[in-house]
Write a structure and sequence with these properties.
With 536 residues, the chain is α/β, with parallel strands linked by helices. The chain folds into two domains: 280 residues, Rossmann fold (3-Layer(aba) Sandwich), CATH 3.40.50; 180 residues, no CATH class. It is built from 24 helices and 17 strands. A seven-stranded mixed sheet has the order 2-12-11-4-10-9-5, with helices on both faces. A five-stranded mixed sheet has the order 14-13-15-16-17, sandwiched between helices. It has a three-stranded antiparallel sheet with strand order 6-7-8, covered by helices on one side. Helix 8 links the parallel strand 9 and strand 10.
Length: 536
């Protein structure tokens, strides 16, 4: 989606355009975020569906269906007029009807219009199906129910004519009218319904999306909502940095202040730069424990871990040394900020004694050679094959065969790479001399160097690698095989699962992880089990 942003103070291009699928406008209370969103709505009045932070959550106990056209118009524009013949006639009336004449501060009161539209479509589609005009439909109300129950698995919904009821899972006898649900349950229903009922290809603006919703549910809810409406572009207005971090692929805008006259001081944050420190000070800040990672925001490990460690704030830092240093420095200040800090780094041919030492310093180590290898663990390969309608056992068997064969073809190079790392570590110990003058130091280093059995080190590495091939140890191949961008193509996993390329394979793996079901939980567990946390 390409739109023109509101006017930016002091910019040569005062109204920059932006191409986006998700956009997060984040800033402190009073920074003008709501006005920013309402200004975009004014600029794209017929294309935008905005959900205000100030809204009525009164869930109607019952509604009566009407005609679908009347229900859709009333939902979108706030009212229906018999004498309006085209939808464009409603554009100028939207601010007065939907927003009561005040687009910035009016209380949005449209829960009844949402329910009327949902029940009208449910009634009309059910009638069309009954009379044989259409196949069995999945209505908008069905889609709302599926997502609502996925986000709140301890609750179920019952739909009947003009009425929605709910009950604790497994206790249908305890059902009650949805009007009696908690604020959180009602707002989750409302948000799902508003997004599902929005016109195709809408710009959906949600002000304070985290309001009334427990932090543990926010990410899952909006992941599922975005998956449900891939045709729409989403703009979120928030002061909650935790929420901003959950929108992994969103463009971030830091709203600093509203200057009046439809002019803002704001900054479009570069993907290459961290969120400015001042932003952390102005907004609430993240109080979750932090995981520092290698790589960047767009790296595979960040995309994967962001779905696995949902109770943490993830911060990619580039190289492994920076991760180790940051965890050390952060934890030394723990008495001040009380936030736990952990690091995750690639294995990179590290030996077990290295893992023990790193784990003792809150550094977790990936138990595959590099993050990309996670995409080839058995559980992910089988889950993707199953999703694509292929035989998971047959696909994994072929992937395993291909990868072990490829490892065998590269074994000499891999042995030498690992041997070089072992030598490097052995020779580092040569600097631990105890002598006090240069002649004695040279003599001591010569002795230490001579004591390194270089042939024995090579033979041990060679024996280990050959054993992996002879025993067809697939997990060991993933742990030892470090050849960037080569494993996935040579495993043939994309061809075997019917996926075009590695990028689409990764996207599907992330999509499966986002879903709140047994498959996603199994994948999360499989990935978490590949992180060494307590080496002995």
């Amino acid at each position: 989606m390409n739109i023109q942003l509101p006017t930016k103070i002091g910019s040569p291009n005062s109204s920059p355009s932006i191409e986006f699928e998700q956009l997060v406008v984040v800033g402190a209370n009073g920074a003008g975020k709501t006005r920013f969103g309402s200004r975009i709505e004014e600029m794209y009045l017929g294309q935008t569906h905005r959900i205000s932070a100030q809204k009525s959550l009164t869930f109607p106990s019952h509604v009566s269906p009407t005609s679908r056209h009347r229900a859709e118009i009333a939902f979108k524009y706030g009212n229906y007029h018999e004498h309006f013949k085209t939808e464009s006639q409603y554009h100028g009336q939207k601010i007065g009807n939907r927003w009561g004449g005040n687009i910035n501060t009016s209380l949005l009161n449209d829960f009844d219009k949402l329910l009327i539209l949902l029940h009208t479509e449910e009634y009309e589609d059910s009638l069309s199906y009954k009379e044989g005009r259409i196949a069995k439909p999945t209505t908008k109300l069905d889609r709302v129910q599926l997502i609502w129950e996925a986000v709140l698995p301890h609750r179920k919904l019952i739909k009947s004519a003009g009425v929605v009821e709910t009950f604790p899972t497994g206790q249908v006898a305890s059902k009650y009218n949805a009007s009696e649900m908690s604020d959180g349950e009602r707002v989750i229903f409302y948000l799902i319904g508003e997004v599902i009922c929005a016109t195709r290809n809408s710009i959906i603006i949600i002000d304070e999306p985290e309001m009334h919703i427990h932090k543990s549910l926010v990410k899952t809810l909006f992941d599922l909502i975005e998956i449900e409406r891939p045709d729409c572009a989403f703009i979120y207005l928030t002061h909650d940095i935790d929420f901003a971090f959950t929108r992994q692929n969103a463009i971030k805008i830091w709203a600093k202040s509203y200057e009046g006259g439809n002019v803002w001081d704001y900054e479009i944050l570069s993907e290459e730069m961290p969120i400015p420190e001042q932003l952390y000070l102005e907004v609430l800040g993240s109080r979750k424990p932090v995981i520092f990672l290698e790589g960047e925001n767009s790296s595979i490990d960040y995309e994967i871990y962001e779905q696995v460690y949902t109770d943490y704030t993830l911060k990619p830092l580039g190289g492994c040394e920076k991760v180790i240093q940051s965890v050390k420095a952060f934890n030394e200040q723990k008495g001040f900020h009380h936030i736990e800090s952990i690091g995750i780094i690639d294995r990179d041919r590290r030996q077990n004694e290295d893992l023990v030492k790193l784990n003792s310093k809150n550094i977790w180590v990936l138990d595959v050679a590099e993050a990309e290898n996670l995409l080839l663990i058995e559980n992910i390969v089988k889950s993707i094959a199953q999703h694509m309608g292929r035989d998971p056992e047959a696909v994994f068997s072929e992937v395993k065969h291909n990868l072990i064969s490829f490892f065998g073809s590269q074994i000499e190079t891999q042995i030498l790479l690992h041997y070089r790392e072992l030598l490097r570590r052995e020779f580092i110990t040569l600097t631990n001399f105890s002598s006090k003058n240069i002649s004695d130091v040279i003599a001591e280093v010569d002795v230490l160097y001579g004591s390194v059995d270089k042939q024995d080190l090579f033979d041990k590495v060679k024996k280990e690698f050959e054993l992996v091939v002879s025993t067809k140890d697939y997990d060991a191949v993933l742990r030892l095989f470090n050849l960037k961008n080569a494993l996935i193509p040579n495993s043939k996993v994309c061809e075997l699962t019917g996926i075009k390329n590695k990028e689409d394979y990764l996207k599907l793996a992330i999509s499966l992880l986002k879903r709140k079901n047994k498959v996603s939980q199994d994948i999360r567990n499989a990935i978490d089990n590949k992180i060494i946390k307590n080496a002995t």
